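Contributing new records

If you add data, match the layout below exactly. Sequence lines come first and carry their own label; structure lines follow with theirs. Keep one chain per record. Anything else will be rejected by the validation script.
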Amino acid sequence: MYKYYNASCFDSYKYIDHNSIDMFFCDPPYFISGARPRNINITTGDRNDWDRQWSSKNEFYDWTLKWMLLMYDQLKPTGSAYICSSWQHSGKIMQLLKEAKFKIRNRITWKRDKGRGSKTNWKSMHEDIWFVTKSNTYTFNVKNIMITKKVVAPYRDENGNPKGWSISNNGEPVRMTYPGNLWIDFTVPFWSMKEVRSYAKTKKSPNNRHKKHNTQKPKELVKRCILASTNKGDTVADYFVGSGTTLISAIETGRNCIALDINSVCIEMLEDRLRNEL
């Protein structure tokens, strides 16, 4: 089951019940693209406008806390949430999550290599994802997200057999290990990927009608969160679904999903992806 709505997160109470969601994945605006322009129109498809709708950091933080409190109310007592943020506001996001009564479990840092960088500053190559829960009882399926790691010191037992490791298809010694909070296996830009070509106009998909979503998260990144913190049949929600990555990821992993976005063009992108990816 999945549902999506062209609606603001502050209207989510119309579609999401109290204590009903198993996991939220939210990738909200970051407020890092400059000052607020005049006559802003946040439904035209310009995500830069959406990121510039606040006149100050305090206004942005007040807005953020407001939707976090909604998320807390709609999350089950055993639920979890993943909140994306830029490094510029990451520390404040943590404070706001605490103010909303969430329990901070971890800060995931993932490699996001985009752009050529700056001659006067270090190039930004990462973003944060805050992993929080509503209580001390929550789902975490670590066996669903084990990763393959190259073995630097491949020990053997007295009979010469591999001790806790095996040989991969390319002949390297590897073992399955618990995942950490530094994710370097997802990269941006990834515009040649099928999930982008399914809706965006690119050299490989010239007949599509939409531009690429400029803040889209890799589908496998979202799936990792879903597989860890939900079970099949659980319900995932996203207040800022953008081009639809959370919705598609939930469907492909056997979860239900309720998705919202105030931007009508993003809903069109989502609908294209539903037609072309599933």
